[in-house]
TrEMBL record, chain A:
UniProt-listed Pfam families: ABC_tran
Keyword ATP-binding among UniProt keywords: yes
Membrane topology of the entry: Peripheral membrane protein
GO MF, one annotated term: ATP hydrolysis activity
The organism of origin for this protein: Acidiphilium rubrum
Native organism taxonomy: Bacteria, Pseudomonadati, Pseudomonadota, Alphaproteobacteria, Acetobacterales
Gene3D superfamilies attached to this UniProt entry: P-loop containing nucleotide triphosphate hydrolases (3.40.50.300)
Protein name (database record): Monosaccharide ABC transporter ATP-binding protein, CUT2 family
PROSITE patterns tied to this protein: ABC_TRANSPORTER_1, ABC_TRANSPORTER_2
Domain ABC transporter span(s) in chain numbering: 6-242, 254-499
Top-level taxonomic group: Bacteria
TrEMBL record, chain C:
InterPro entries, sorted: ABC_transp_permease (IPR001851)
Domain of life: Bacteria
Name recorded for this polypeptide: Monosaccharide ABC transporter membrane protein, CUT2 family
Keywords: Cell membrane, Membrane, Transmembrane, Transmembrane helix
Segments traversing the membrane: 20-38, 50-69, 156-185, 217-239, 270-290
Length: 505, 330, 318
């Protein structure tokens, strides 16, 4: 078709053992807003990085306005007219809006001196075209995040962008800022610019997009006009059955009565966690069901004290943890496994043993001295229980496979003998075998009376693990259900319901 | 410009914190000028020796060597690094000037400047191309350059007939000492370069967010190297002027000036975290340190060593205030 | 598991192994060269003198290694030495033991201020310790009016300044004992683990509930105390407290020795033994120049080149 601006043909990309993208073909048309959807690890960010020149595809080609192009650096992509706006602004916050718009090709007088008056005038004109009431002389950092993103878009347009990639542009925006974004997107559309829009908010995607492409496990699983892709079908495509997944049957169990292992009430953090309450009983697995960006990670972090909650109460084993910090939570008997293994999990350069015992050091130390014998015993115990495959306790953690690294981190959580544990997407990015072993381990621990709160990017997995689900939408609890006799489709339907009821503060 | 209801609302929403942020930014960038004025008034009222034209000229001349170095240092700090080699380069510059003078006054200026630039080039390449930490590289340069200066001249070299060279540093134009002219013109040019050229804007961009600057197409490595070259050149030149002023090349000259120049810049509101700062602020910092030195010198019962204590304490307070203010602004 | 084993060999490649051990190889090579070519190197007085010079550097290198292990830096150690010596001189009327305690105490104060700025206010260690480098030196100079104060002869100061067991100075024995203690602490205590955790991944350390702030405060306080003791040793050796001389540029030697010894600037790993040998290497290198009648200034130039070269090579090793 003639109005296709950017197209990928059978693009594949591998990182080591992980096939990040396989055979991805999709097309972006002029004046179209094209939504890109998918869960953690579906391949969205890899695709964007290929389109913006950070990565090179292993196979396949990128066609820009009918000709195959090589985007071998971010600057090359920009020169070709592909402009990207990220959630984390790639501009200079301490400098003025005009300077940010013109950095690198400021208008000059006498060939040397920057003509500030002219630069600011042009900046004002450019901003006015998009109906943005921004003073070109204002410090960029003084603007709200939303307006900063608009400036970033305007810069792209000024440099002649034909394709604008908006990567989760609205996830940190306030209501009015989102409206501004919508207006700007409409204007870009009218100017014939193709827009690739990545968002985790479904209502937004439906409001803005003309077409939606869904990635799962690095493949395109759906690519339809929005009218042909109802919410339930979209969510089904995103979270649906994974061909590779092996999920054992959940053993029948009865949670113990009495005091909750872990309980949160009225939890609040920024506008990402809104009045969230739940309780996890001993011997029970509760699933926090929600899409990426629904506040599931933030709920866990605020409960644990990794983020400072702005309201609400946490109780572990019946006793209150007044202002939780990770240290206090662990002492109270709560453990937390972050979804980001690399940034918030492992200690690179250190050994398996040192990584595994990190939080449990007080248990194997006397007067501050770590007992080699007790450490060896602890490492041996968990290596056996969780089936950690390692060359030995002194092997560097980075020498382990992702799945085994994850098991070490799980062992780190369990080594403090917690009453309750929060597992944020515990099997993210690990292979099928390791996944099954992690599930098995969780089931065994629950038998022994541990309370578990878990999330997953895969609905199937969550259903297989959890006894009960709490549905989280845009930071608020919008439902709760037992998983007995529940079908995946039922949960997808719950997630798909428009949540007009959820008030934006 | 058409202003729709929503965007007006967006603007109003951010107005109050923005006003506070502006106020804080003003204190950060212009606070030093205020403190300098205040200190001048207090000193004038308190010490009869202070408010005389001759004394002000003394302060200006004495501060001019630090001033030249502080210009380069300010560029480097805004870039997000710092240059510890400048003090040693003053010593090397002064020795080289003495050696080069027989070939002409111009050689006595050019050779030190080129030598300083060459050291800056090596520093810059190691920092920008090899990715080494600025403090390690320039700290080693501090050591090595001082060593070179000492090898060249164990004792000070007396310049026999300074002639034109001496006049450059000790003469007057329109009744004002040349050194004062030089440093003020130097700061004025630096301010224009910093604010009105693509190079200056790029320096701010790199210091503000290096990764973003690279993404936005700024030639990061080249700008970094150039900036260390500028700093080294100015330090070498400062050494040459010192030699002209004192009629001798002194290999141990300039010790501690690297720290003083950093202190002056930071006191003047140049953030050590990079990306923020003004030349006017840095100049105020230089003059403030010069004023303190002048007063301590003349009080008589205070050791001249309190100067270093004062600049250290000022630096510490400036770092603290800037850290707190920067957090507030966010 | 085979992949694990292969990954392990990949991690410790021959090059990396050589790099990790390079300080010992270089030290041995230098000694051999000196034994053959340098006149008088075999003289026991030379060795004793060398160890006298090395003792304070070893102490500041220990503190520096802890700071670098957390992915920080402590530029204030040299000035802290000067301040400690100055405070010690002022406290002399109270007796030599009190004076030494006051000097070490001054180091502790500087370390606590530095650690407080870093831990509580989250100021970059480079910046806070740079500010203290200026402030501590200025304070030292102001306290003594910039002049040299002689220490009394005899007693404690002689024991520290000239006392030796055969060719091994008392101060070197103390410094090595403390090095052993620090190595032991790093290896076996929770504190040592916490230091490495913070250096390897601060965000993960926070999530793991590790007391990051307290550990950082302790690290910089320890560095201050060690620098204080180093200042006392240096002054005792000199027989005087000289605020313009004691500890100048020691921070560079300490950083260089630590990094050459296998403590990477990127944090998460500490080699105390390597740091000690790094100090010895730099000291022997300097001595070699002097003993071969090469202008000491050349030694200074080559030392700078050597440091940059070594760091350049280590850079690739991370």
């Amino acid at each position: 078709m003639s109005d296709i601006i950017l197209e990928t043909r059978a693009v594949s990309k591998r990182f080591g053992a992980v096939q990040a993208l396989s055979d991805v073909s999709f097309a972006l048309r002029a004046g179209e807003v094209h939504g890109l959807a998918g869960e953690n690890g579906a391949g969205k960010s890899t695709l964007i990085k290929i389109l913006t020149g950070f990565y090179q595809p292993d196979e396949g080609e990128i066609i820009l306005s009918g000709t195959a192009v090589r985007l071998d650096s971010p600057r090359a992509a920009q020169r070709q007219g592909i402009s990207a706006v990220y959630q984390e602004i790639n501009l200079i916050p301490e400098r003025s809006v005009a300077e940010n718009l013109f950095l690198g090709n400021e208008p000059r007088r006498f060939g040397v001196l920057i003509d500030r008056a002219r630069m600011e005038r042009s900046a004002a004109e450019l901003l006015a075209r998009y109906d943005l009431a921004i003073d070109p002389r204002a410090r960029l950092g003084a603007l709200g995040l939303g307006l900063q993103q608009m400036v970033s878009i305007a810069r792209g347009v000024r440099l002649g962008a034909r394709v604008a990639i908006l990567d989760e542009p609205s996830s940190a925006l306030t209501g009015t800022e989102v409206e501004t974004l919508y207006r700007v997107v409409d204007r870009l559309k009218a100017d014939g610019i193709a827009i690739l829009f990545v968002s985790h908010r479904l209502s937004e995607s439906y409001r803005l997009c003309d077409r939606l492409t869904v990635l799962r496990d690095g493949r395109v699983v759906a690519s339809e006009a929005v009218a042909d892709l109802p919410r339930a079908a979209l969510i089904g495509a995103m979270l649906g059955r994974n061909a590779e997944a092996i999920h054992g049957n959940r053993p029948a169990r009865t949670p113990r009565e009495g005091v909750a292992a872990f309980e949160a009430s009225g939890l609040r953090w920024r506008n990402r966690v809104r009045d969230v309450s739940f309780a996890v009983r001993p011997g029970e697995v509760v699933g926090l069901a929600g899409l990426l960006g629904s506040g599931r990670t933030e709920t866990m972090k605020a409960s644990f004290g990794a983020e400072t909650k702005e309201g609400g109460a946490i109780r572990v084993g019946g006793s209150s943890v007044p202002s939780p910090t990770p240290g206090r939570s662990i002492a109270a008997g709560l453990a937390f496994l972050s979804e980001d293994r690399r940034a918030e999990g492992i200690f690179p350069k250190l050994s398996v043993a040192e990584n595994l015992t990190a939080t449990a050091l007080p248990r194997i130390a006397r007067f501050g001295f770590v007992s080699r014998r007790k450490q060896a015993a602890m490492v041996a115990e968990f290596t056996k229980v969780l089936g950690i495959k390692t060359a030995g306790p002194n092997a560097p953690i980075t020498s382990l496979s992702g799945g085994n690294q994850q098991k070490v981190l799980l062992a780190r959580c369990l080594a403090t003998a917690p009453r309750a544990i929060m597992l944020d997407d515990p099997t993210r990015g690990i292979d099928v075998g390791a996944k099954a072993e992690v599930h098995e381990a969780i089931n065994r621990l629950v038998e022994q009376g541990l309370g578990v709160l878990v999330t997953s990017s895969e609905m199937e997995e969550l259903m297989a693990l959890a006894d009960r689900l709490i549905v989280l939408t845009e930071g608020a609890v919008t439902g709760a259900t037992s998983t007995d006799g529940l079908e995946v489709q039922d949960v997808l339907d719950m997630l798909a319901q428009p949540h007009e009821a959820v008030a934006h503060p | 410009m058409s202003v729709s209801g929503t965007s007006a609302a967006v603007r109003a929403e951010g107005a109050a914190p923005e006003r506070r942020a502006r106020l804080i930014a003003l204190i950060q960038s212009r606070g030093a000028i205020g403190v300098l004025l205040l200190a001048t008034i207090v000193a004038s009222l308190r010490f009869p020796f202070f408010p005389t034209v001759a004394n002000f000229e003394n302060i200006g001349t004495a501060a001019s060597f630090l001033g030249l170095v502080a210009i380069g240092q300010t560029f480097v700090i805004i870039l997000g690094g710092f240059d510890l080699s400048v003090g040693s380069l003053i010593g090397l510059g002064s020795v080289l000037a003495a050696y080069a003078l027989p070939y002409g006054w111009w050689a006595a200026l050019l050779v030190p400047a080129l030598a300083g630039g060459a050291v800056g080039l090596v520093d810059g390449l190691l920092i920008a191309r090899a990715g080494m930490a600025p403090f390690i590289v320039t700290l080693a340069a501090l050591l090595g350059v001082r060593g070179i200066a000492l090898v060249l001249a164990k004792n000070s070299l007396v310049i026999a007939t300074p002639g034109v060279f001496g006049l450059i540093a000790n003469g007057q134009i329109l009744g004002i000492d040349n050194l004062i002219w030089i440093v003020f013109i130097g700061f004025a040019i630096a301010a224009i370069v910093l604010n009105r050229t693509r190079y200056g804007v790029a320096v701010f961009a790199i210091g503000g967010n290096e990764e973003a600057a690279r993404m936005l197409g700024v030639p990061v490595a080249r700008i970094k190297v150039l900036t260390y070259v500028v700093s080294g050149t100015l330090a070498g030149l400062s050494g040459a002027l010192l030699a002209a002023h004192l009629s001798s090349g002194i290999s141990t000259a300039g010790q501690g000036e690297e720290l003083k120049s950093i202190a002056a810049a930071v006191i003047g509101g140049v953030l050590l975290t990079g990306g923020v700062g003004t030349m006017a602020g840095a100049l105020s910092g230089v003059l403030l340190l010069g004023l303190i030195e002048n007063v301590i010198d003349q009080i008589g019962n205070l050791s001249s060593y309190y100067q270093n204590l004062a600049s250290g304490v000022f630096l510490l307070i400036a770092v603290l205030i800037q850290t707190v203010l920067t957090r507030r602004r966010r | 598991m085979s992949t694990g084993l292969m990954a392990r060999t990949g991690h410790d490649s021959p090059m990396a192994l050589l790099r990790a051990q390079s300080v010992y190889v270089a030290f041995a090579a230098l000694i051999v060269i000196d034994l053959i070519f340098t006149p008088g190197f075999r003289n026991v007085f030379v060795i004793r003198n060398l160890l006298f010079e090395a003792a304070p550097v070893i102490l500041v290198t220990l503190g520096q290694s802890l700071a670098i292990g957390t992915r920080g830096i402590d530029l204030s150690v040299g000035s802290t030495m000067g301040l400690a010596a100055a405070v010690m001189a002022l406290a002399l009327p109270g007796g030599s033991w009190l004076a030494v305690a006051a000097g070490v105490g001054a180091g502790l104060v500087v370390g606590m201020i530095n650690g407080g700025l870093i831990a509580a206010l989250d100021i970059n260690p480079l910046i806070s310790s740079l500010a203290l480098l200026v402030a501590a030196r200025g304070t030292a100079e102001a306290l003594l009016d910039g002049s040299r104060v002689s220490l009394p002869t005899g007693g404690l100061f002689d024991a520290l300044g000239i006392g030796a067991v055969w060719i091994v100075p008392t101060v070197a024995i103390i410094a090595l004992a403390i090095a052993g203690l620090v190595a032991f602490l790093v290896r076996t205590t929770m504190f040592g683990r916490y230091v490495l955790f913070i250096g390897a991944n601060k965000a993960a350390a926070m999530i793991a509930g590790i007391k990051v702030r307290r550990t950082l405060l302790l690290v910089y306080a320890a560095s201050g105390v060690l620098a204080g003791l180093a200042g006392v040793f240096a002054a005792a050796r000199l027989g005087a407290s000289d605020p313009n001389y004691i500890g100048v540029n020691y921070e560079l030697d300490a950083i260089a020795a630590a990094v050459i010894g296998g403590t990477p600037l990127s944090g998460g790993r500490i080699s105390i033994l390597g740091g000690v040998f790094g100090v010895l290497l730099l000291q022997v290198l300097g001595a070699s120049f002097i003993m071969n009648d090469i202008n000491f200034s050349y030694a200074q130039i080559l030392k700078a080149v050597f440091i940059v070269g070594a760091l350049y090579l280590q850079r690739a090793g991370g």
